Amino acid sequence: xxxxxxxxxxxxxxxxxxxxxxxxxxxxxxxxxxxxxxxxxxxxxxxxxxxxxxxxxxxxxxxxxxxxxxxxxxxxxxxxxxxxxxxxxxxxxxxxxxxxxxxxxxxxxxxxxxxxxxxxxxxxxxxxxxxxxxxxxxxxxxxxxxxxxxxxxxxxxxxxxxxxxxxxxxxxxxxxxxxxxxxxxxxxxxxxxxxxxxxxxxxxxxxxxxxxxxxxxxxxxxxxxxxxxxxxxxxxxxxxxxxxxxxxxxxxxxxxxxxxxxxxxxxxxxxxxxxxxxxxxxxxxxxxxx
Length: 290
Ligand code: KIV
Fold this sequence. Notes:
By secondary structure, the protein is of the alpha/beta class. Helix content is 39%, strand content 13%. The chain is built from 12 helices and 8 strands. The chain has helices at residues 14-23, 35-41, 54-57, 69-80, 101-113, 128-136, 152-155, 165-181, 193-202, 223-226, 244-261, 277-282, and strands at 27-31, 47-50, 87-91, 118-122, 141-146, 185-189, 207-210, 218-221. The longest helix has 18 residues, at 244-261. The radius of gyration is 24 Å and the shape is elongated. The termini are far apart. The model has no long low-confidence stretch (mean pLDDT 95). 3-methyl-2-oxobutanoic acid is lined by residues 31, 49, 51-53, 91, 187, 189, 210, 220, 222.
């Protein structure tokens, strides 16, 4: 029996997502970094994010700071070739939206030309101006507040944000500032559940939570975390539904054992010569024996 049958089939667009907030329907977002992960996720989720988490999840970096536009474009193109029905959002990497409005618009516009429906960028009120410039160029923007991984050095590590009054009130101000600047949705990452609830209830745009409690308009988790494909420590907000890393390793080691014992491949897994050619092959001798 397929577990995919109750999934939404309509093409997910920004107006659809905004309607869902009014209807109280929760949006589901995950990451994809290539055509395989996109094809697995697309029939199930509502939003696919080509996240800059590709840096630590797939490329072996310790954090997202080394991720470049060239890397993001490479992964976005692979995902976009699958033509997902989910809303396709591409993450603006570190330094791709900080230097000038012109460069930011070129980078974000390039994502749309490669098949993204929208871009996501990290930061609060100080990013409002660049959000306005992008929206003015018809580039939809998803904001990202709270534990913003590109600010790891400023935060002094990957720490829960909004736990003191100043920080919590600033987050609410930032959320409203980004909404006013034209963001169509906000990711809220690593903040207390009560703060995420207050933001969600006071905003008209949907919020997508990750480590932000149950009251957000939707939830996002990294694909590899949900499927247990990462070996590293998983934060407490991650729920893993299958130990994929171990499961895949177990399957691969069964194949390796079959190769080593000679039970792979079988005649059924091999090609045969046409009738009559076997003798010619068997009788062949090198023409210039050395
Ligand atoms: O890059 C990413 O995967 C993200 C999500 C965790 C929201 O920004």
